[in-house]
Design brief:
By secondary structure, the chain is of the alpha+beta class. Helix content is 43%, strand content 22%. The protein is built from four helices and four strands; from the N terminus they run H-E-E-E-E-H-H-H. Helix 1 packs across helix 3.
Length: 108
């Protein structure tokens, strides 16, 4: 007799096996591709709701693909108070400089 994996156990296994690839994260949206046992599924978060392209999710059942993506991402929070276009550009420039500096150090 085999013991069936719980949803969380399967989600952790998907992560451990490298089957979860987060492809987009910003203040509005998250997208991840999760290789399930039968196909690759797209998990997204947009405007307050998580969605998965798998059959279980179509019937409003929580799936391991979505659970796995949720384990490694955080629901976007809008931070509009005090955020101006100039502050946003400064934050983007700082992120770019950090990323470019990190890539130069790795190639050296």
């Amino acid at each position: 007799m085999s013991v069936r994996e719980s949803l969380r156990e399967k989600a952790v296994r998907l992560l451990a096996e490298g089957r979860v690839q987060v492809t987009w994260v910003d203040d509005e949206r998250i997208e991840a591709h999760v290789r399930g046992s039968d196909a690759e599924h797209v998990v997204t978060y947009e405007r307050g709701g998580w969605r998965c392209s798998c059959e279980a999710a179509r019937f409003n059942q929580r799936c391991s693909h979505l659970a796995a993506a949720q384990l490694v991402t955080r629901r976007p929070e809008r931070q509009t108070a005090g955020l101006t276009a100039a502050r946003m550009r400064a934050a983007q420039d700082e992120a770019t400089a950090t990323r470019n500096g990190a890539s130069r150090r790795r190639s050296a």
